Amino acid sequence: MALESHIAELRDRHRALEQEIDSQVHHPSSDDLHIAELKKQKLRLKEEIERLNGTRDAA
């Protein structure tokens, strides 16, 4: 059950990053480098979620 809660937490963080990216993209004085870093973080979270789901499904 700990794995399920960890995956849920990662999904929450992924969703929060998605909202922050959307907010930054629509802000007139947004920093492209900051947005790029947020997108990298979001991708890392997605990859971690997929990896953990694969581990869970294989067990």
Automatic annotation (TrEMBL):
InterPro entries listed in its UniProt record: DUF465, DUF465_sf
Protein's name according to its UniProt entry: DUF465 domain-containing protein
Stretches assigned to coiled coil: 7-55
Keyword annotations from UniProtKB, A to Z: Coiled coil
Gene3D superfamilies recorded: 6.10.280.50
Taxonomic placement: Bacteria, Pseudomonadati, Pseudomonadota, Alphaproteobacteria, Hyphomicrobiales
Species of origin: Parvibaculum lavamentivorans (strain DS-1 / DSM 13023 / NCIMB 13966)
Any Pfam family the entry gives: DUF465
